[in-house]
Design goal:
The chain is mainly alpha-helical and 116 residues long. Helices cover 51% and strands 0% of the residues.
Length: 116
Amino acid sequence: MSSHAPNRARVIPLRPAPAPKEPLWRDLVGDVLRRERIAQQRTLKDVAEAARISMPYLSEVERGRKEASSEVLAAAARSLGLRLADVLSLAQQELADRGRAGTPVRAPMGEVRLAA
């Protein structure tokens, strides 16, 4: 007689889900600048010229590909009729909103959020 080992299921422990990826500050600030520019129906060229920064560089900042200095951010903000504090406040609000939702969410293009 052959002895049979009892059938045992192989248990593979599940790995915990990875923590949600924290958004980068440069992405948040870039999103704010782009939304503000589009809400004002202005071109990248127009805003870059008013800010006295290159159009390709502003595009990179808006897309979160470049970490702009505070001087560049202030110039871009002024060209949009904002203060640097306004842009940073809007970016902070976006960060807080994403944190509450638990997942990264982009505001629809053209939507403007003003901080009080």
